[in-house]
C-alpha cells in the first residue's frame, strides 16, 4: 500500500461566520500540492456551537466549496460541519473527492456535558471511505471516548478523527488517541 500524505489545517474559527471561515481556509489551501488528504477541524464553518445548524451554510454550498478545493489540491478534503437536514440537525463529517464524490458520517456519540444531544441527532452508521488504496474510518471528537465504535474489525486502515477539543483536556486527547491505536494494533 502506498503512503498517504495528510495535511491538517487549524485556525481560530470566526464564531458562527461560515463565509469568513471559508475565506480563511481558502488562504490556507493556496499552494498546497502533493497531498492525499487535507483535514479541516470539527464544525470548521462555525466553531463548536449548539445553535450552529440553525444558521449554518447549506450543505450544497459547503460541498461545492469542498469539491472546488479538492479539485484545486487534487486531494480528499475532510471536515465536519453543523447541518440542518430533513431528519434534524447533525454534526456531519464530510469527505469530498476531487471528482465530486461525497462521503459522510454523522457523529454517533454526542457530547452530553455541552447538551449536544439536545441540539443534534446522533448518527448510527459506521462509514468506511476508500481513497487511494486506503480504507478510512471517519470519526468525530467525542467518538474517541468509545473504543468499541472504533474497533478495527480488519475493515479500515486509518481512523481519522476531527475534533474541536479544548486545550485544557489535551492530555486526554493524546492519551485516548494512543489508547485507540494500541487497542487496534496500529
In short:
With 186 residues, this protein is of the alpha/beta class.
Mean pLDDT: 96
What is the CATH domain class?
A: Alpha Beta
**Beta-strand content bin:** 15-25%
Integer count of domains: 1
Protein name: Omega-amidase YafV
Family: Belongs to the carbon-nitrogen hydrolase superfamily. NIT1/NIT2 family.
InterPro entries: C-N_Hydrolase, C-N_Hydrolase_sf, Omega-amidase_YafV, UPF0012_CS
Organism: Shewanella xiamenensis
What keywords describe this structure?
single chain; about 190 residues; alpha/beta; Nitrilase/N-carbamoyl-D-aminoacid amidohydrolase; 4 helices; omega-amidase activity; UPF0012_CS; 2-oxoglutaramate amidase activity; EC 3.5.1.3
Describe the fold and architecture.
It contains 4 helices and 8 strands, in the order βαβαβββαβββα. The protein has helices at 18-29, 59-73, 116-119, 170-183; strands at 6-8, 37-39, 76-85, 88-96, 102-106, 129-131, 134-140, 158-162. The chain has a 5-stranded mixed beta sheet. Strands 6-7-8 form a 3-stranded mixed beta sheet, with no helix packed on it.
Amino acid at each position: 500500500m502506498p503512503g498517504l500524505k495528510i495535511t491538517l489545517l487549524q485556525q481560530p474559527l470566526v464564531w458562527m461566520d461560515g463565509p469568513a471561515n471559508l475565506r480563511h481556509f481558502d488562504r490556507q489551501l493556496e499552494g498546497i500540492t502533493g497531498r492525499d488528504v487535507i483535514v479541516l477541524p470539527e464544525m470548521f464553518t462555525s466553531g463548536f456551537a449548539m445553535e450552529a445548524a440553525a444558521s449554518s451554510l447549506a450543505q450544497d454550498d459547503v460541498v461545492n466549496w469542498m469539491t472546488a478545493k479538492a479539485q484545486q489540491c487534487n486531494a480528499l478534503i475532510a471536515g465536519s460541519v453543523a447541518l440542518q437536514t430533513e431528519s434534524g440537525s447533525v454534526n456531519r463529517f464530510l469527505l469530498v473527492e476531487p471528482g465530486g464524490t461525497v462521503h459522510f458520517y454523522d457523529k454517533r456519540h454526542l457530547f452530553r456535558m455541552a447538551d449536544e444531544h439536545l441540539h443534534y441527532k446522533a448518527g448510527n452508521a459506521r462509514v468506511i471511505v476508500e481513497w487511494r488504496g486506503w480504507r478510512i474510518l471517519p470519526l468525530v471528537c467525542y467518538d474517541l471516548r468509545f473504543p468499541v465504535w472504533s474497533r478495527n474489525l480488519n475493515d479500515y486502515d486509518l481512523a481519522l478523527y476531527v475534533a474541536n477539543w479544548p486545550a485544557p483536556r489535551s492530555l486526554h486527547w493524546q492519551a485516548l488517541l494512543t489508547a485507540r491505536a494500541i487497542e487496534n494494533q496500529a
